[in-house]
Amino acid sequence: MQRPGMKEELPKQYDHSTTEKRWYQFWLQKGYFHSQPNPQRKPYCIVIPPPNVTGALHLGHALNNTLQDILIRQKRMQGFETLWMPGTDHAGIATQAVVERRLWQEERKTRHDLGRAALVERIWKWKDEYEARILDQLKRMGCSCDWQRTRFTLDPICARAVRHSFFRLFRDGLIYRGKRLVNWDTTLQTVISDDEVFHEQVPGHFWYFRYPVLDPQPGDPPYVTVATTRPETMLGDTAVAVHPEPAAALDKAERELANRLATAPAKERPQLEAELAELRQRRSSLLPLLERLRDMARQGRKVLLPLLNRPIPLICDEWAKPEMGTGCVKITPAHDPNDYEVGLRHGLPMINILNLDGTLNANAGPFQGQSIEQARRNVVAAMEQQGLLEKVEDRLIDLAHSDRSKTPIEPMLTDQWFIRMERLAQMAMEAVQDGRIKIIPARYAKGYLDWLAEKRDWPISRQLWWGHQIPIWYCQTASDVELQRAFAGRQDICWRQDQDSGQWLICALEEDLPEDAIPGHRLRREEDVLDTWFSSALWPHSTLGWPDQTEELLYYYPTSVLVTSRDILTLWVARMVLMSLYNLGQIPFYEVYIHPKILDAYGETMSKSKGNGVDPVDVMEKFGADSLRFGLAYLTTETQDIRMRVDFECPHCGKLLEQTLDNRTLPRITCPHCGKPFATQWAEKPEDKALPRGPVVSERFELARNFCNKLWNASRFALLNLSGYCPAPVPDAELRIEDRWILSRLATVTQQVTDALAEYRFSEAARTLYEFAWDEFCSFYVEMLKSRLQEQGSRAVAQRLLAHTLDVLLRLLHPMVPFVTEEVWQRLADFAPERGIDRPERAAESIMIAPWPTADARRIDPQIEAQFARFQQVLRAVRDVRARQNVPPKRKIRFLVRCDVPTALLLEPMAEYFGPLAQAEPTGWGPDVQPPPLVATVATAGMEIFVDLAGLIDLEAEIARKKQELAKLQSLMEAKQRKLADPAFLQKAPAAVVQQHRQSLQSLQEQYDALQRWLTQHAQMPS
RNA sequence: GGGCGAUUAGCUCAGUUGGUCAGAGCGCCACGCUUACAACGUGGAGGUCGCAGGUUCGAUCCCUGCAUCGCCCACCA
Question: Which H or E run contains A718?
């Protein structure tokens, strides 16, 4: 394919809209993104953290993928065989929930109305739509993924890896089925993992219930009081617990409190003292009762569970804390995690009172069929009616909610599948502990290790329809012999007896089993699907073709780095590590880079549901993809999250309106500037949707947009001045000071950027390039080339240097701003197809595949850089005087520099640049210059600059200013002198530092003297 | 309760193996459309680097405590 056509004229402003699509197509058609195993090169591979197909990408994804593309593009230029594996995640619960919600909103249907197959079909449609949108977003950002390899966690390749992993785990006894108390989401009707639960404080109550004592003996209390925040659970109570050693427990609590009090800061003391007093009070009032109850429990006494009139035992268990509540605790093993443990310890019945939809079941007796809320009210009312409600307290309750449906979690006893973590977690910990996997920044390793150290078994079954169905078939009736006969010689089938139910659990590797796989018996397939993280955990190797030993797997694995944000370090990263170690005996990646999170102006993470999410496409349409990318890289520092104020942009008048907590979820907003309404992402009603949409953008991308424009214009200057360019080596002898300076700086910057990217210091790389390109290349070098390009004699060399410097700069910038650099690269090729000042070579047909620059250490010249800094100092001083004295811009001024001979020798060759850069003309430099009578002076270290201001100067103002400066210098000098008079400093500080301070004082003294001279001289002059 | 991070100019944030590094962008002020760029140029104002101690010849940087904010994990009948 030919290079796509470019408009001949160069617009003054860089127009991203006309270039981005063109070059992306060009790259695609050239096949640059595609990677094949190539033994001649080293591999570099990143697997994308697959975005959920739940919805479109927001700025957090944009950041994640920008950083990956920067790494990938740089490594590609560095000559690695570079593969960026793209794909998306089916995100089981989240996606099904979104589709179900929409089904309900639009058609008032539940998933049961539709049935499994139809619902799954709908979700596939949703997936197709959003996957396309997501991939399009990535492409617009310029991501150089190998699209030919795009995967989806439910596609056949991933599904095969899931089946193989499950089969191996099951065969090895690492997967089991068991009754467990799980987090039940009554809305979605599925179990969710602890990690999908969030806690929220809600106002609630503390109800005190009385349970009558059965057959009270003399001295027994008539009833036992227990407190609860969930009254309805009493229907499932199977015991009341009291501490076995209440006195000892109270002593211990008291000791602990006293210890805390001893070390507590004054502020917390009153609080602690109050607690201590209360504890002592409680001891005297409650202890006899608790000890009595303890004795009763030991005797096997019972209480009567009201409403259901079920006798339940009093038991002794340490879970009942005498210092809390009433000192006694009701035990509901089937609906509370702690009670469940108690139930296991005491062999208590576990009575489930809930149906899957959150209504009460037959075990709830008269409350059957009621919702939890109804039952709660009715239970309380009934207890009150029977005189068994002692009191009610208001209280804030930390309630567990489902992250997916936002409904309160009900702990529920159900059959679930688990993975034993003991061994797997250990392996995953060791991989990080022994340094095989490096987590960057290192502080995140702790969270990873702590989480794994708990080694809690991983619940992997979900009662969903969208996902990988668990490849298990149940058979109740067959015998072991029949199984062996039916599956004789089949390596791909294994089975085990379920401990609880006694039925066979049969696992099949790749083929699904028919109902009649065992003659004379019926098999029933497990309906549950696997937790989404199960397939995500396989992502690095499943996408490369495992379980087959594909060429790709052998070549690219382990992958180079995983780039992600900290919140899924455990959920995803840890699980990838352990599954990879289990399946392949290899780590999945060498490094894990954790990048910052993007927060809104209020410090909240961005999410679509909050309404503060920003579509990167909005940002790109306004600022361009390069600006999005550069802006994000510029903000990616090691410690800070990225806080970003976002604004609505009115589609009518273009003005910005800050997004606030109040307006961010409105479906339509009326622009306060022009009074016209526009739609937001929340628009659903037809009349809202018909309005033009107001995109959400952030002014934090302006810096990057301006930078791209600056780069564009510097390039534009180059292109306008390269006609007649002729490549040739430039010998050192032909280099001028400014050339040696820019080449030295270029080499330094090359090294700095290369190092920064190697260590994931994106912000530093971006800042280094920003400053070099703007403050050095544009502000000085290009300015100084202007006159050289005008003159025939110097033009050719100047062109070679210009082309070369721009060429290197473009390559260094390309990973961050791929589009504008390619646009310039291509145009540059028209004038200067061969570039370089040592040995000019033909430039690559695309900057994407041009070699990454290497720092030429030979060019680094600190002396020249220091000398050039001198020149800049003089220039700044002259400009300063001009501005201060309000010298009209076109008026030329003259100046002298009093300095030593070496400095004068340096300044000499720069003389001609003071004209174009400062409208100034040097009339002499050296130790013996004679300043004219009326001058403005600037004294800097080692130099005194006199600007001739005859007829221009505002003497009064200048004198006032000088006096101020004098005072400032004086205080600086005094501080210095004090320091240099301090024997401790002289004795202990390194000699070099002392010397530095001496020089510094001397220089201050010179400046001071110069000012003094000027003041004495001008004080007598008539103004 | 445990852990992690932050606190620097009006705003958003860099920075430091502890010694002229107190910086950038935006905003503000003054002057300029000078033949790459007003999305620009030149110059300027603006900060006892959260507070209090400590270590050190020397602390914005290291240590301790405190305050405020954010995040993660655990947990409260």
Answer: helix A702-720
